[in-house]
């Protein structure tokens, strides 16, 4: 199998590290070689966070270059638009429509851009944009956006529901297991 590349993008505190850990466990359980690399930047200050997840028969580097991502999983709309040049032709962006103001918007030096989904689609990008935050709240916690997004992303893979469930079970504390199962199901079924 050729190497597949998934970029997870968002801002600090949204759960991208748990999402990458869960994907890593899923791909390992299926016998793939996997590499994960995390770039935190100013994540503790609400800055951009990027995680690279690469899997295949043999993966030599954890880094995804421009034009190589099969999927970009974005926790925030502006982050989806920021990383489009990393998407390969025929790749797909799965993004939450939530908008989190970056520091220039907070300070009044800039405005949050309008029409980002339409701009990406006009550029020929396959964008699956939906309100993952509402689904996470419906599951029981706004913090489950990451699992809702993974549920939506799971449609792009032919792994069994049991494979995904086992990866969730191994990745989240037992007291949050049912909440995360609900979040995953809502993302997958929405």
What do these coordinates show?
This protein is an alpha/beta fold and 190 residues long. It has a single domain, classed as Pyruvate-ferredoxin oxidoreductase, PFOR, domain III (Pyruvate-ferredoxin Oxidoreductase, domain 3), CATH 3.40.920.10. 38% of the residues lie in helices and 24% in strands. The chain has 8 helices and 6 strands, in the order βαβββαβααβαααα. It has helices at 16-29, 77-82, 103-106, 116-122, 132-139, 145-153, 161-171, 177-189; strands spanning 4-11, 33-39, 48-56, 69-74, 87-96, 126-130. It has a 6-stranded mixed β-sheet with strand order 2-3-1-4-5-6, with helices on both faces. Strand 2 (33-39) and strand 3 (48-56) form a beta hairpin. The protein is globular, with a radius of gyration of 16 Å. It starts with a strand and ends with a helix. The relative contact order is 0.16. The model has no long low-confidence stretch (mean pLDDT 93).
Task: Briefly say what this structure is.
With 190 residues, the protein is an alpha/beta fold. It contains eight helices and six strands; from the N terminus they run βαβββαβααβαααα.
């Amino acid at each position: 199998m050729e190497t597949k590349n998934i970029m997870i993008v968002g801002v600090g505190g949204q759960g991208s590290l748990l999402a990458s850990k869960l994907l890593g466990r899923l791909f390992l359980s299926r016998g793939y070689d996997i590499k994960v690399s995390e770039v935190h930047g100013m994540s503790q200050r609400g800055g951009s966070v990027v995680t690279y997840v690469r899997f295949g028969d043999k993966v030599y580097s954890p880094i995804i270059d421009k034009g190589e991502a099969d999927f970009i999983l974005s926790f925030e709309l502006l982050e989806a638009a920021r990383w489009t040049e990393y998407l390969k032709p025929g790749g797909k962006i799965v993004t939450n429509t939530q908008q989190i103001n970056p520091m220039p918007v907070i300070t009044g030096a800039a405005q949050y851009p309008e029409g980002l989904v339409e701009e990406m689609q006009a550029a020929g990008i396959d964008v699956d944009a939906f309100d993952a935050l509402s689904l996470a709240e419906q599951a029981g916690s706004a913090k489950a956006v990451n699992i809702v997004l993974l549920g939506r992303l799971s449609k792009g893979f032919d792994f069994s529901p049991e494979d995904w469930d086992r990866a969730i079970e191994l990745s989240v504390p037992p007291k949050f297991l049912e909440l995360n199962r609900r979040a995953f199901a809502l993302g997958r079924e929405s």
